[in-house]
């Protein structure tokens, strides 16, 4: 067993939502036109694909010409990475919010992205303390921010349309994202 056991119930683990501040910060850069894995109450873009419309079977390039936001179900990230690779070749830029899990089987596919942007902590001069880069997701049951951060570091994996360059790894501090929101 690893030291990052989820505190979310299994029934709701794949239904948590990205915090609005985090999405807003990333959306400023990418102006998303589609949310590829959402429910009505968790969507962050007006146009979204729900489990009723299996996003993994759809050709996103026939649904949108813009950039795609993806916070996939963390219980099975591999098919989503493969989908992003496929859609990049069809002209879709996808930004994925996922745990930075370099030991996971699906990570090999993440390394085929253009950029892996780790969300890191920051030093707060006001308090003189280090602040975590961890993310508190929105609980699917309550609609409230979860009391604890996800026990894994998070990153943005970016697949840029028609771009097949070696992956670069960068960082963005949580403070930069909070300020951009």
Secondary structure layout:
Elements (H helix, E strand, L loop, with lengths): L19 H11 L1 E4 L31 E4 L7 H12 L4 E6 L7 H4 L4 E6 L1 E3 L4 E3 L22 E6 L8 E6 H7 L1
Parallel strand pairs: 1-2, 2-3, 4-8
Antiparallel strand pairs: 3-7, 4-7, 5-6
Helix pairs in contact: 1-4
Report what the structure shows.
The chain is 19% helix and 21% strand. It is α/β, with parallel strands linked by helices. The chain has a single domain (13-180), classed as Rossmann fold (3-Layer(aba) Sandwich), CATH 3.40.50. It has a six-stranded mixed sheet with strand order 1-2-3-7-4-8. Helix 2 links the parallel strand 2 (67-70) and strand 3. The model is unreliable at 1-6 and 8-13 (pLDDT under 50).
Here the CATH topology equals Rossmann fold
Query: Main β-sheet: number of strands, strand sense, barrel status?
Result: 6 strands, mixed
Work out the number of β strands: 8
Radius of gyration: 16 Å
- The low-confidence parts are 1-6, 8-13
Strand residue content: 15-25%
End-to-end gap: 36 Å
CATH architecture: 3-Layer(aba) Sandwich
What is the SS-derived class?
alpha/beta
Number of domains: 1
What is the gist of this entry?
With 181 residues, the protein is of the alpha/beta class. It has helices at 20-30, 78-89, 107-110, 174-180; strands at residues 32-35, 67-70, 94-99, 115-120, 122-124, 129-131, 154-159, 168-173.
């Amino acid at each position: 067993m690893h030291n990052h056991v989820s505190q979310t119930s299994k029934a709701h683990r794949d239904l948590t939502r990205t915090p609005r501040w985090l999405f807003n910060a990333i959306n400023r850069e990418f102006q998303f036109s589609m949310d590829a894995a959402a429910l009505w109450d968790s969507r962050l873009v007006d146009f979204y694909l729900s489990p009723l419309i299996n996003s993994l079977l759809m050709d996103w390039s026939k649904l949108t010409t813009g950039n795609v936001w993806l916070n996939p179900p963390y219980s099975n990230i591999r098919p989503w990475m493969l989908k992003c690779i496929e859609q990049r070749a069809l002209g879709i830029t996808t930004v994925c919010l996922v745990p930075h899990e370099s030991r996971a089987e699906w990570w090999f596919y993440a390394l085929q992205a253009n950029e892996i942007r780790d969300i890191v902590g920051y030093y707060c001069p006001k308090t003189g303390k280090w602040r975590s880069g961890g993310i508190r997701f929105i609980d699917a049951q309550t609609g409230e921010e979860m009391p604890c951060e996800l026990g894994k570091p998070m990153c943005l994996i970016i697949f840029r349309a028609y771009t097949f360059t070696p992956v670069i790894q960068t960082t963005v501090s949580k403070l930069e994202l909070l300020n951009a929101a």
